[in-house]
Amino acid sequence: MKVFVTSNQQFGRPNAIKLYGRPFDTVEEMNNHLIEQWNSVVSKDDVVYVLGNFAWDPETAEAAVMSLNGEIIVLPGEYDKAMEELDSMHDTLPNVIFASFDVEYITEIKAAISYWPLLDWPLKSKGVPSVIGHPSPEYTSDHKRNVINCKCDAWDFKPVDVDKIRDLFNSIK
Length: 173
Hints:
The protein contains 5 helices and 9 strands, in the order βααβαβαββββββα. By secondary structure, it is α/β, with parallel strands linked by helices. The strands form 2 sheets. The chain has a 5-stranded mixed β-sheet with strand order 4-3-2-1-9. Strands 5-6-7-8 form a 4-stranded mixed β-sheet, with no helix packed on it. A hairpin with a 4-residue loop joins strand 5 and strand 6. Helix 3 (about 60-65) packs across helix 4 (about 80-90).
C-alpha cells in the first residue's frame, strides 16, 4: 500500500480549464484525463489524501469517485460543497471518507496536511513537512520552508507518492 497526496482536481468545473490554464477543450476531456492520470499511479489498495477542491457538483463527484482507484480521504477546501452534499446523501461511499478536520498530522505519511497554506503546523520544529493543496501560484513547494504543494496541476495531474516527494526534499537539503 502506498500513500498519495493531491488536490484541486475540480472535477466538473468548466472554469478550471481557463483559471488554471489546463490543456483541455472540454470539461469531459479534463475529467477523463484526471481519472486516467490518477489511476496510472494509484492502485486499489492505496490511500489518497485529497487536500481540497475535489469536485464542482455532487453528480460529477460521485461519478469520479466510482472511477478512481484507492481509498480517498477528502479534506475540505474552498470548493468542496459537492463532497459535503454527496457525503450527506449517502451513508457510505465505498472508497471515500470526508474528513472532519482542516489540519492534521498524519502519522503514516509523517507530515502535516491542510488545504490552506500554514505559517505553523504540528511538529514543524521537528522538521515535519507541511503538505498543502491551495491552487494559488503564490503557494509553491519550497524545500527551504519544508512546504510541499500537492495541487494536481503541478504534478502532471497525478497524485504524488508521499515517500518519493519526501525523499526528493531530503536529497536537496
